[in-house]
Amino acid sequence: MTHAFGERLPDLRVRPPGPKSQQWAARLRRVESRNVTFVSETFPVFWVRARGANVEDADGNIYLDLSGAFGVAAAGHTAEPIVQALHDQAEILVHGMGDIHPTPLKVELLERLARLAPWRSARGVLASSGSEAIEVALKTALLATGRTGVLAFEGSYHGLTLGALSVTHRDDFRAPFRSRLFEGVRFLPFPGGPSGAPVHEALTRVREVLAGRDGGPAVGAVLVEPIQGRGGVRVPPPGFLSQVAELAHTAGALMICDEIFTGLGRTGRMFAFEHEGLSPDVICLGKALGGGMPLSACLAPRRVMDAWPESAGEALQTSTFLGHPLSCAAALAFLDVLEKEGLVRRAREVGDRLQSRLRDRLGALPGVRDVRGRGLMIGIELSVGDGQRSGSEVAEALLRRGILLLPAGPQGNVLELVPPLTIAEHQLDFAVETLVAELG
Fold first, then answer.
1. 20 to 30 A Cα–Cα from 322, which one of 95, 173, 215, 365?
2. What is the mean pLDDT of residues 346-358?
């Protein structure tokens, strides 16, 4: 059976990266900071077209995308309703003045997000990147509590702008800029995965810090990813997050859930915190929200967000592209697709089946340490040691088989599967068999 582009299996014409990708890489190296894009003889390929779960590179190779483009393509690449919304909007208004002369689309999107939020009334701030949403959340917590201290977790990733970098745990990102980072952030153990801390140990440390027994500044914000994505798809044990939230509220701190990666259906619920039965004080969204356009949001109940003062003509938190009409139009179309196509339920049902199959087929292999996740956010943790391939090596080998995915985790030994929520069953069948062949 011949499938349309979007539902095809990989089809490689040349060994990736092909000559055209290599030519683009050479040109890029001449004009981009050498720190941005990793270039080697085996990486990267340059994308020129995508639809559904397929990506085509500059050499005409077709891949199966299990990365979802960092989880952005939740509704599939180039989803028709989103493309149509962008086309329609681009014909009438491309750019507005978000905090001066807004567009109706900005209002409609904030109203839509307020209806999705877990509070009776909600307010939000729109931005362009996940890092910006985290910055807004941290500022909101400071205004609402008057406390500068932040509690974050080992393995966390919240972005690379200076405020977000202060609460990102990875030392390779932090070290060059340590002298400029806020020192009032305490990183505590995060339980989850074979290498995670015991729950009682993690909660004991949370209690100590919130009680001020470590001598640091009083904590006004407890920031957590309900599932650590870039940290290695680390899922906390049941009840951990709800206990952290209870401790935070007792201590007068705000619970901030970074749902930039996990939110909007990825884990089989609208928000990943719903698996824990908790209601955070602040939510950060991004990635999938824009349907492929740059967009993020920070949401909170009015009692929290109204800690920000009334605007007197100058906003304390804004940007040139705040509430950008194209991004808002794409986001509204994405939320329509999410609802009409039942993608939250599909992520749960398809993800549960996929995770079960991966455990059955990979669980006994000597090079596989763990298979875990929720919905269509799944991590395959590889063993580390002499003779074991790194996650990057496996990812490059899979690229040559026509599969796109990324390694995650502090040691880069977790294969991160976050495909479009629309991925077809026969594509998942191929993905499973290819992973078994490569890891077996």
1. 173
2. 98
For residues 436 and 388, what is the distance between their CA atoms, to the nearest angstrom? 16
**Six-digit token pair at 324?**
């950008």
Mean pLDDT of the 125-140 span: 98
| pLDDT band, very low/low/confident/very high, at 259 (cuts 50, 70, 90) | very high
Chain centroid to Cα 62, Å, comes to: 24
The answer, yes or no, to whether residue 131 has pLDDT greater than 80, is yes
The tokens of 246 are what? 């209870």
Output the six-digit token pair for 438.
């490569």
Asked if 159 and 134 count as a contact pair (C-beta separation under 8 A), the reply is yes
Q: Provide the pLDDT for residue 2.
A: 85
Does position 44 have pLDDT exceeding 90, yes or no? Answer: yes
Cβ-Cβ contacts under 8 Å for 413 (sequence gap 6 or more): 232, 381, 382, 383, 384, 390, 391, 407
Pairing assessment for the beta strands 296-301 and 368-374 based on DSSP bridges: unpaired
Helices (H) and strands (E) in the chain, counts: 14, 15
Phi, psi of 150 (to 5 degrees): -130, 135
> What is the model's pLDDT at position 37?
97
Q: How far apart are CA 79 and CA 81, in angstroms?
A: 6
Longest dimension (CA), the chain: 66
Answer positive or negative: Cα dihedral of 180, 185, 188, 193: negative
